Amino acid sequence: MTFNEGMQIDTSTTSSSGRGGGGGRRIAVGGGIGGLLLVVVALFLGVDPGSVLPQDQGAGMDTQGVSSPGFDLSQCKTGADANELAECRVVATGNSLDSVWPQLLPEYTRPKVHLFSGGIETQGCGFADSNVGPFYCPNDQTAYFDVSFFDVLRDQFGSSGGPFAQEYVVAHEFGHHVQNLLGVLGRAQQDPTGPTGGGVRTELQADCYAGVWAHYAAITKQDGTDVPFLEPLSDKDIADALSAASAVGDDRIQEAATGRVSPESWTHGSSEQRQQWFTTGYQTGDPNKCDTFAPGALR
């Protein structure tokens, strides 16, 4: 999906940092969400959290990087910049989401966005390495993005990698913010694994919320410029989003990694489920249709 060049990018809720040193610390998993379930809730990647976090509860996640400046946000001024630079695309997508969601959820407040590379010491969830992928921290209400993940999504997970696939990732993480505002994010703790567990239901609902945003993205005008944030969705845009959703399905990742599918350990849902719930949100534009916790919602 292409941004209208006349839209103006607002970076006021966005910050950026370069490669950070973790100092032997690890991502905080106590408090708030609690335990390892923070990873189940926050991470977009549908992989075993044990593969990206230390096995020893007292151990740290080391980083070898050195401090470096973050991305220069002054480069993000217009929709043309969003069409050219992935970092600006993340910020502009957040601007669009911040305009769509208040129309659907009166209590919506803007989350913060932080761009990083290598690793990041969060304000509320400890240290996170880039390997964990984009994530949302409920304790500081911030969505964290290392845009190198978009290359991983394409090269290692087989996504088509188009711009709308990237925007879908951003919308998914903002979906977790909506869940946090509604007080349902913690439901991921209830039966956190398995094909109908709380982890899967939480992630599929975030996919559905991403679809809801897509329903309105091309018709929502920016205050001040009176131009829509994005141009109308094409069939290729939808295909890109569905490709990204499919690429990070638990079943697809498990089969690629081990040659077998183990639904009992799912945390994010199958490729088919992720596509299905994104499509539900996109076709209806109704957040109420995203109740993945309803009896019989998952089959």
Automatic annotation (TrEMBL):
It holds the Pfam family Zn_peptidase. It comes from the Bacteria. Keywords: Membrane, Transmembrane, Transmembrane helix. Residues 1-23, 280-299 are annotated as: Disordered. Residues 1-17 have a biased composition (Polar residues). GO terms for cellular component: membrane. SUPFAM superfamilies: Metalloproteases ('zincins'), catalytic domain. It is found in: Membrane. It is a single-pass membrane protein. The chain crosses the membrane at residues 27-47. The keyword Mitochondrion does not apply. This is Neutral zinc metallopeptidase.
